[in-house]
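yo, Fe2OG dioxygenase domain-containing protein is done. seq:
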Amino acid sequence: MGLPPGFLRDYNNDRSFDLMISRRYFPDPATEEENKNIGFGQHEDASCITFIFQDGIGGLEVLKDGHWIPAEPIDGSIVVNIGDVIQVLSNDKLKSATHRVVRKPGNRHSFVFFLNPHGDKWVEPLPEFTAEIDEAPRYRRFLYREYLELRARNKTHPPASVTHYAI
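structure:
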């Protein structure tokens, strides 16, 4: 991905901020409108990287060029999303994936693992993506914990997005 070797090593010495969750989405046959069939609305993950293990039901969609594209489940596959931390570290060279979950017929079940930095780690564009290639940083430095607190307070995307730290 063009990132320096071992770049996450300093961000992930302590696994206590990583998170694995199991999610179940039940269909709602009474709602036909698209906006009422959203199991989990449009957002970007606050993590470095997110690994998603889907069942065969599907429902995960990714926003591309203004259109929602289904991430159809493929048996034995794992969906990997870039999160906000990688977007900042790469100075926007890699973008956090905007995605959502829509309700589909059947009971959807997924496991999601969020690889996160520890809360006391500073997040800022790496020199490999700024000073070393004569590009200005696009984000100011912030503590990861502060970013999580911002997202928890606002509960929306945006304003609770990494753009809050944009320069």
